[in-house]
Design brief:
Number of strands: 17
Shape: globular
Radius of gyration: 22 Å
Strand content: 25-35%
Helix content: 25-40%
Order of helices and strands: HEEHHEHHHEEHEEEEEEEEHHEEEE
Strand order of the largest sheet: 1-2-6-7-10-13-14-15-17
Largest sheet: 9 strands, mixed
Bound molecules: adenosine monophosphate, magnesium ion
Length: about 325
């Protein structure tokens, strides 16, 4: 009897603690596209649509991955052409537009260089290549062309494609569509730093999106926003320290073949289209602040740039921006004109 009472008490304690921990709503999560993705709906009745979103992430990975041997992009890079799909056409359209609008700073034909530096699971041996290797590979990447013809996708001159700078944004954009079409009025999509808010919070207050501190744990600032995408590119995501003691990160300047060196530590782009926000954040990291501002204006995008001692924001964020207490001593805030 004593045993039974102990067991029953234990059961009640477990139940109580489960109840306490159980969050409101439902979160679907998946490990895909090199990250852990979360889709959180704030009403459990929409749980199936959150699951649909994470399944889509797997489908997209199976088409777009540069390393999965069965993927379309893998075939494209191996054979120079592949039958296109709806997703491939759409993401190629985005990539080519972004390449054009960012003066080539966003370049989907960057893969030979990404591979050379070892920033891929296929060849996870990150190293500083020799100058000759860089010159040769840069030539290959810059001379190759990605295009669609007769429902096929082509990459010319033995080049190779990498949609890694835009794939998560493209996924988030499609997830937003799935959730909206199905009446979801409050959700948060987090694809490893690619955030998409959906609808509005039930209490009517704006979403509060935190921007990570790129050099230590914690956050630098918060943005108070409605339905939008918030995408960050940073040198803290994937990098290695070379034998020379220098830090080499994964965003390559298509003009030099080296990791970009525009003085930016992290750049966050806020735009209604997550694919555009994703492509722009990668490009802005390469371009530096001045050139990026013109492009941001063209797209109606807002930007947060973190440099060593300065956080710069575009004007449209002035009344939506809060600096974290821990960042107040370290950073000066600058509003960009
Ligand atoms: P993101 O984290 O969105 O900035 O994307 C970085 C990823 O995009 C890298 O890991 C590469 O796969 C790819 N990438 C690197 N440099 C470029 C570039 N200049 N243009 C387009 N994609 C790039
Ligand atoms: Mg990107």
């Amino acid at each position: 009897m004593k045993k039974l009472i102990v067991l029953l008490t234990l059961f009640c304690v477990i139940l109580a603690s489960c109840e306490k921990k159980e969050p409101e709503g439902y979160t679907a999560s998946i490990n895909a596209m090199d990250t852990v993705a979360f889709v959180r709906v704030y009403d459990e009745k929409y749980a199936a649509f959150a699951d649909e979103c994470t399944e889509l992430m797997l489908q997209l990975e199976a088409e777009l991955s540069v390393t999965l041997t069965g993927s379309r992009v893998y075939h494209l890079n191996k054979n120079g052409s592949v039958p296109s799909t709806e997703h491939l056409k759409a993401i190629t359209g985005y990539a080519l537009e972004l390449k054009d609008k960012t003066f080539g700073a966003f370049d989907p034909c960057i893969y030979p260089l990404v591979r050379l530096w070892g920033f891929t699971e296929e060849n996870d041996k990150k190293r500083v290549p020799s100058e000759d290797e860089i010159i040769e590979t840069l030539k290959k990447a810059s001379e190759s062309k990605l295009y669609i013809k007769n429902d096929n996708l082509y990459i010319s001159n033995g080049g190779a494609v990498d949609f890694g700078g835009i794939a998560k944004g493209y996924a988030a954009k499609l997830m937003l569509e799935i959730l909206k079409e199905n009446g979801v009025d409050a959700a948060l999509i987090d694809l490893g730093g690619n955030i998409q808010t959906v609808g509005s919070k039930s209490d009517g207050t704006p979403w509060n999106i935190a921007i990570k501190n790129p050099v230590e744990d914690g956050y630098t600032c918060y943005l108070s926003l409605g339905e939008t995408a918030v995408v960050t590119s940073g040198s803290d995501v994937r990098y290695f320290i070379g034998d020379d003691g220098k830090k080499y990160h994964h965003i390559i300047d298509p003009k030099t073949g080296y990791p970009s060196d525009a003085g930016i530590i992290s750049v966050t782009v806020i735009h209604e289209d997550a694919a555009i926000a994703d492509g722009l954040s990668t490009a802005f990291f390469v371009l530096g602040i001045e050139k990026s501002l013109e492009i941001a204006e063209h797209y109606g995008a807002e930007v947060v740039v973190i440099e060593n001692e300065i956080i710069s924001i575009t004007k449209g964020l002035q009344d939506k921006f809060t600096l974290d207490e821990s960042a107040k001593d370290k950073y000066n805030l600058k509003v960009l004109d």
